[in-house]
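Q: Second attempt. The first request was missing the SMILES, so the protein and MTE are both included now.
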Amino acid sequence: MAGVSRGFFGHDRESDSGLPPGQYLTHDFPVLSTGPTPLISTSDWEFTIRTESGAVHRWDWQQLTALPIEDITTDIHCVTRWSKLGTGWRGVSLDVLFEGVDTSYDFVMAHSYGGYTTNLPLEDITDGKAWIAIGFDGEDLDPEHGGPARLLVPHLYFWKSAKWIHELVMQSDDEPGFWEQNGYHPYGDPWNEQRYW
Ligand SMILES: Nc1nc2c(c(=O)[nH]1)N[C@H]1C(S)=C(S)[C@@H](COP(=O)(O)O)O[C@H]1N2
Ligand SMILES: [Mo]
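A: Got both inputs this time. The predicted holo structure:
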């Protein structure tokens, strides 16, 4: 095939760039919120995990930030088709928070300040896959991006990363959260384009 430039046989830039199907790259950081930004001071903030036994595991801000904080570099993918690659976060692994939690339930409902909910399988937020994020790009997490703290579950569409996270409730069944009740996919894998159903 003389005359065809070498680049023609090279890999396609888009598919090489690490983007899931149907996504485009953005360099700004869009804000997507269904309602007003709840303003929670770190002195009022608390995070709990509730299990089927009635046990309540509770952390205030001081307790949370005394835990090991990890630097996370990850790609994020919104169902509205924007993706950001290599975003930098700071957060506490949910593995640390689940260490003392005894549950036989396989699902979690995340509840945020302001009333947002989203459902997740427990196995998708453990084993190094999810964090309570408190920092972004070297700064404290902006309130509009979920500060003081949000869930970060980067391997699923970003609606699963509940901003202003307040509580995780263990569930026996995978019940739909806010967007899932409104037509979003119950699981939301960007690589399989599980957008809506
Ligand atoms: N509490 C809460 N969390 C939320 C949302 C929301 O409306 N409320 N929107 C979700 C959606 S659809 C996306 S794409 C991301 C957007 O996060 P960002 O505003 O920081 O970009 O947050 C997710 N978490
Ligand atoms: Mo989204």
